[in-house]
Amino acid sequence: MSNAVEQIIAHYAGENPGVIGKLRRLLHTGTLAGTGKLVILPVDQGFEHGPARSFAPNPAGYDPEYHVNLAIEAGCNAYAAPLGFIEAVAHKYAGRIPFILKVNNSDSLGGPDQPCSALTSGVRDALRLGASAIGYTIYPGSGLRNEQYQGIRDLIAQAREVGLPTVLWSYPRGAGISKNGETALDVVAYAAHIACQLGAHIVKVKPPTDFIEQKEAQKSYLEVPKSTLAERIQHVVQSSFNGKRIVIFSGGAAKGSDEVLEELRQIAKGGGFGSIMGRNAFQRSPRDGKKLLQDAMAIFRG
Amino acid sequence: MSNAVEQIIAHYAGENPGVIGKLRRLLHTGTLAGTGKLVILPVDQGFEHGPARSFAPNPAGYDPEYHVNLAIEAGCNAYAAPLGFIEAVAHKYAGRIPFILKVNNSDSLGGPDQPCSALTSGVRDALRLGASAIGYTIYPGSGLRNEQYQGIRDLIAQAREVGLPTVLWSYPRGAGISKNGETALDVVAYAAHIACQLGAHIVKVKPPTDFIEQKEAQKSYLEVPKSTLAERIQHVVQSSFNGKRIVIFSGGAAKGSDEVLEELRQIAKGGGFGSIMGRNAFQRSPRDGKKLLQDAMAIFRG
Amino acid sequence: MSNAVEQIIAHYAGENPGVIGKLRRLLHTGTLAGTGKLVILPVDQGFEHGPARSFAPNPAGYDPEYHVNLAIEAGCNAYAAPLGFIEAVAHKYAGRIPFILKVNNSDSLGGPDQPCSALTSGVRDALRLGASAIGYTIYPGSGLRNEQYQGIRDLIAQAREVGLPTVLWSYPRGAGISKNGETALDVVAYAAHIACQLGAHIVKVKPPTDFIEQKEAQKSYLEVPKSTLAERIQHVVQSSFNGKRIVIFSGGAAKGSDEVLEELRQIAKGGGFGSIMGRNAFQRSPRDGKKLLQDAMAIFRG
Amino acid sequence: MSNAVEQIIAHYAGENPGVIGKLRRLLHTGTLAGTGKLVILPVDQGFEHGPARSFAPNPAGYDPEYHVNLAIEAGCNAYAAPLGFIEAVAHKYAGRIPFILKVNNSDSLGGPDQPCSALTSGVRDALRLGASAIGYTIYPGSGLRNEQYQGIRDLIAQAREVGLPTVLWSYPRGAGISKNGETALDVVAYAAHIACQLGAHIVKVKPPTDFIEQKEAQKSYLEVPKSTLAERIQHVVQSSFNGKRIVIFSGGAAKGSDEVLEELRQIAKGGGFGSIMGRNAFQRSPRDGKKLLQDAMAIFRG
Amino acid sequence: MSNAVEQIIAHYAGENPGVIGKLRRLLHTGTLAGTGKLVILPVDQGFEHGPARSFAPNPAGYDPEYHVNLAIEAGCNAYAAPLGFIEAVAHKYAGRIPFILKVNNSDSLGGPDQPCSALTSGVRDALRLGASAIGYTIYPGSGLRNEQYQGIRDLIAQAREVGLPTVLWSYPRGAGISKNGETALDVVAYAAHIACQLGAHIVKVKPPTDFIEQKEAQKSYLEVPKSTLAERIQHVVQSSFNGKRIVIFSGGAAKGSDEVLEELRQIAKGGGFGSIMGRNAFQRSPRDGKKLLQDAMAIFRG
Questions:
Q1: pLDDT tens column, D210-262
Q2: How far is B264 from B298, CA to CA, in rounded Å?
Q3: Less packed terminus of chain B by CB within 10 Å, N or C?
Q4: Exposure of D181 by Cβ count < 10 A (0-12 exposed, 13-18 middle, 19+ buried)?
Q5: How many beta carbons lie within 10 A of that of residue C179, not counting itself?
Q6: Quick check: D119 and D125 in contact, CB under 8 A?
Q7: Residue A101 — left, alpha, or beta (φ > 0 → left; ψ -120 to 50 → alpha)?
Q8: Which of B54, B134, B53, B67 has the alpha carbon at shortest distance from B101?
Q9: What are the pLDDT digits (tens) for B124-137?
Q10: Cα–Cα distances in angstroms (integers) from residue C208 to residues C204, C222, C239, D15, D47, in the given order
Q11: Do residues E163 and E22 lie in contact, with contact meaning Cβ atoms separated by under 8 Å?
Q12: Which of C22, C37, C102, C204 is catalytic?
């Protein structure tokens, strides 16, 4: 029994044992087992950006088996992917690492006028494939916000009924938000708060920049410390029910290892619960990708 | 047995015992128990306006536990909040104060062209969390009016089946209403009447101003007394089935205590059934917020 | 057993006994019982036009109990109202007068671009409240026609299953119809015919004017007598399956008693089955309103 | 046992006995019983064009009983009409002539921007009223094509389950088709083919003109004989699974008897399975209407 | 037991025995049985382009029986067609060749603003008609992408439940894609990848050209060999889970036999799993069409 884990789990009291059990499983897997921290490998970029943009830098990644193997060997807490990638490996890897089935996805070929991912799988698929959680993306700021919030409302309820927690990707985007605003501190904190209010068990947002998007919010931020990333992370964690919900941060586009690791140190320092790192891991060579994931875990273990 | 309460309850004859029982519970809780009056603490501003704009003035409010505690300690009749805030505290506080689960919400990052909140929880959540009522916002005047009226129609029916009453936030807003018109006397009275016709058990509107929005209505208001807030409140109560439905009034943005209390006196004088006061309570220090709520109750107790 | 009633009922042969029974009940209630004629009191104007515009002329009308009492005392065949107004009185008045639950409603604050009422109650509510029929408004001519026709199709089927007949308010309105066209003879006759084809048991239209809206229809009206209201009523009755469906006529905005009564005489002379009269009744003083309803009944009794 | 009928029925092998039985019933009713040909009386013009435009020329037609009588007396294979008209006569005429319940309808007062009929009845109504088939209109070429194709897909499946065949009115219309194109040979043949692919048992189209609408199709028609109506009918029959589906042709607006009969001769010569003739029948005097229908049958009997 | 087939089937481990069994059946039918390669005859062009454009070059094709016969005699693995064409032959040919029921279709007369096929049949039809798989078209790049992805998500789940695999036609098309881009290498590879991620068992795309559509993707293609069709096919196969999903290629509009066969050689050389060839087969004379299909099979047998 890990104190670090049980302190987190205590904030989910009231959840049913099935959901609690899967949260414990995520927190008790891999190198970071028992620390209360998570490093997750997500591979939905083939769907989101296309296969060549995702896998040409390291063509081994065209094969769905590559990624689940990488996640296991590096010691990740979980592996997250869309339906097809999970279906291609589940029979062989179920039980060896928790799967997070990403149940909605966007491609970059076209779509509705306002950002909204398509439902591509569901809770029954998650059960059938032995997944430990479902994942879903909302775009706060989108004109199709209502469809997405109502969609996740229904999915969280269905997942709960079968004992599965929900991981919510909360990415502000849409008509009323500037490009810089998508990672603005106020907007990211707001997006994390919304995800918590919607009932997400784990929230994933982008690391916030030192920028305030909404005029009405500027006054409120006058006294919020925000010059370092660690401080901004802290504000996002605070906005997530004062740290009572697990918030993890994504890594974004591939970049140099030093830069990646420095960002992770700030996330850890600010009280972030971990990182979800895709392209920075699988677009490197197998050895380098694995090493970067392990370095990340070392940072979160502290 | 309270005469004041039973006189109100008598107007809901025909409702099933489950719903009646929960209404009695709301009216028999806290400092105002048995008076037929209500002061409710609502905390959905994190969702509606963002966490920093809501909680930076009193950072204790980032923690969901702060608010339910404040409501209990101040002696409120109920605590209203979205799914996440209720989920975070229900296991510990269920049974100690009635919860009103706010089942739809808007954020201020984006959304549909015409005002319409997203469904974020439901009747089954209310049951699961031990709530005593559901809350829902309609925006009369919106081009998406039909979706909202039909939505609440279905929710009221579902809630009734499991013995839960419904609190309706009726906030006029949308294409055909001017900014001033949103709190115009004719519009607020109309919004309250619509909520009653839709079957709401408790209606929440904003205090009306001395302004008539609709040209077609101006003649009808020639002889309606409306120069004081108390008179306008009286007209809204009259428009709510001649006082046979519970109508409470929201407080709006934070302001000076004197101003708040004077408004409450007018509401009480006009026959309003109570107040639902959020930012004016939780954006003050714990001591000041609690005091203001208690002063409000003192006014309604008379 | 009334011959006048049974001659009407014979045209509904094939309907199930539940529906037939409720139709008999409507035709065997009040002053006009057994005559085959109907005078109904509808009070949905609070919802449709706002409370002050509806009830300020006679403030007793703010109270839902006022109207059902007026209908009973005047000897009406039925009382029609939206959910809230029926809920407020059903426990006390169910069984004393047939209720028609108006299951959809519009307000005049805003709404969709093309006319379409919101669903505000349903067949289960009608059962729960002891209603004898449901009422529904369609707007032929609206761009949202399909939603409305399909909606009433489903509701008629549901209502029939539990033995309830349907009253259809058929009010032409929308993009392709001029303001004058809304009461044009061709359009009103067409609207009545559509309502009959949709399966309505009782059709409510406005008294038609001596105007032909549709160019394509003008030739067809060359030999249709239409200079008196009685003749136009006769054409509408003919267009309603040659008089085999009950068609009643609404009174419109309040006006002088002589004018109202002259209109009713023409309706009666033209073979109309009765009148549905709201504002002209409840916006008068209790005594005058009751008297006007009784005068109307005297006309239809002949 | 009729060889002509059984040869047609053989092309529906695989259908369930219920559907086959109703098809046999349609082909074994009236004057043309056993010939494999059909003349059907449809009366939905009151709904589609309005009552006066439909029935003023022969006011007996305002009465729903007139038409079913005409169909029986003239010896038609079936009588097709919307819900209301069938409900008004079903109790008296069920079993005396097959009814085709037209389950969707348009009026000419208004509607969606792209052509799409409203659902006005359904398969359960067809069963309840003793109908032998359902009828449905699609508008190939409409921007709302998908809603219509998906709608009829579901209805055909429901109807089949209870042993009812489906008659599909396939009328090209909409944004991309010129007025002349609506009856162009390529477009009518295409519309008939689509109806067959959608699973219709009987297809109804308009007689095609000697015009090719689609540029891409012109080359394909260089060698298709098309100068006479009979040749064009033959091409439509060929396009309907090489004559393996029953295709009948509508008569359109009222015109002179000689013109009507010449058109029917061409339809018969081209291998058409029959005619569905409304206004040309019921807008004539009872005697003339009946005679024209009988003359039509004489042509198809050959 | 065929090694070639079992190596393919191994990549579908985790699927239920029903689906696996049908995949084996497709791979063990016809001339290519046991080779792991497929040649399929699809005939939905009557629906998609109209009957004359499809069948005038070889009028025998107006008859639905022609095509299923051609598929059987030529030794195809399967025959794919819309509902009507399958219904017309299923009773006679079920069990003689696997049917793929194409459950959605577009016509070229009109439709929604963004490409989206209409649902025209379903899984229950597939069962009723003895089909071995369902087929569905998605248009990546369409503004209605979400509807289509969610639609196929549901259909795949339904089909799986009754042991039927799904063939996905993935044809990029829509607002953001240029005409040339529809067959661009990056876009076709992306479309194939999306289809795999959506859970398709067999993916059908068009042979890609040597063109890169998306600016963001150009860098990724600098080192991808792509000058020959075989190389491009290889990239598409790689993008389809590194060859772990069956990808077949369509032939497009009719052209000279030499050209067709050269294209097939390249597809085979690049590792494509086969071809789905319609117009090139059925628009030739029966003898030539059969010969071309057999020549195609000879190429894939190698």
A1: 999 999 999 999 999 999 999 999 999 999 999 999 999 997 677 899 999 99
A2: 10
A3: N
A4: buried
A5: 7
A6: no
A7: beta
A8: B134
A9: 999 999 999 999 99
A10: 12, 16, 13, 50, 19
A11: yes
A12: C204
Cα(A150)–Cα(B116) distance, integer angstroms: 12
* Mean of pLDDT values over D62-87: 98
Question: What sign for the dihedral angle of Cα D58, D59, D62, D63?
Answer: negative
Q: In chain A, helix, strand, coil percent, each to 5?
A: 50, 15, 40
Q: Is C226 part of the annotated catalytic residue set?
A: no
Compute the distance between CA of residue A292 and CA of residue A284 in angstroms, rounded to an integer. 9
Q: Are C297 and C32 in contact (CB under 8 A)?
A: yes
Positive or negative, the CA dihedral C156, C157, C159, C165 is: positive
Q: Is E135 helix (H, G, I), strand (E, B) or coil?
A: strand
**What residue of E is the nearest CA neighbor of D9?**
E88
Of D190, C223, D154, E235, the residue nearest A56 (C-alpha) = E235
- In sequence order, what are the residues at sequence separation of 6 or more whose Cβ sits closer than 8 angstroms to the Cβ of residue A169? A135, A136, A137, A138, A204, A250
How do C104-105 and C118-119 pair as beta strands? antiparallel
pTM: 0.96
pLDDT in tens, C81-111: 999 999 999 999 999 999 999 999 999 999 9
Q: Which residue is listed with tokens 């974020």? A: B120
Distance of CA C198 to the CA centre of its chain: 16
Euclidean distance between CA atoms C296 and D127, whole angstroms: 42
Report, as residue numbers or ranges, the catalytic residues of B.
Answer: 204
Q: Are B146 and B106 in contact (CB under 8 A)?
A: no
Q: Which of A221, A243, A222 is nearest to A234 (CA)?
A: A243
**According to the 3-state scheme, what is the secondary structure of chain B?**
CCHHHHHHHHCCECECHHHHHHHHHHHCCCCCCCCCCEEEEECCHHHHHCHHHHHCCCHHHHCHHHHHHHHHHHCCCEEEECHHHHHCCHHHHCCCCCEEEECEECCCCCCCCCCCCEECCCHHHHHHCCCCEEEEEECCCCCCHHHHHHHHHHHHHHHHHCCCCEEEEECCCCCCCCCHHHHEHHHHHHHHHHHHHCCCCEEEECCCECCCCCHHHHHHHCCCCCCCHHHHHHHHHHHCCCCCCEEEEECCCCCCHHHHHHHHHHHHHCCCCEEECCHHHHCCCHHHHHHHHHHHHHHHHC
Residue ranges of E strands in chain C: 38-42, 78-81, 99-102, 104-105, 118-119, 133-138, 166-170, 202-205, 246-250, 274-276
Give the number of other CB atoms < 10 A from CB of residue E61. 24
Report strand pairing: D78-82 vs D38-42: parallel
Q: What's the 3-state SS for D123-161?
A: HHHHHHCCCCEEEEEECCCCCCHHHHHHHHHHHHHHHHH
**D chain contacts of residue E49, beta-carbon cutoff 8 Å:** 216
Name the residue type at position A49: H
Distances B10 to B6, B14, B244, C62, C88 between C-alpha atoms, Å: 6, 9, 9, 18, 10
Going by DSSP bridges, is the β-strand pair A104-105/A118-119 parallel, antiparallel, or unpaired? antiparallel
Q: Identify whether the C-beta of residue A247 lies closer than 8 Å to the C-beta of residue A208.
A: no
DSSP state of E231: H
Structure tokens, B14:
């025909």
Residues sharing a CB contact under 8 Å with residue E259, sequence separation 6 or more, in sequence order: none
Distance CA E49, CA E57 (A): 14
ipTM of the complex: 0.97
Q: Which among E160, E197, E226, E231 is the top mutation candidate for probing chain A, defined by the most A β-carbons within 10 Å of its own β-carbon?
A: E197
C-alpha D208/C-alpha D192 separation (Å) is 11
Cα–Cα nearest to D196, from E71, E64, E66, E279: E64
What mean pLDDT do residues C26-43 have? Answer: 98
Give first-to-last CA distance, chain A, whole Å: 20
Q: What is the mean pLDDT of chain C?
A: 97
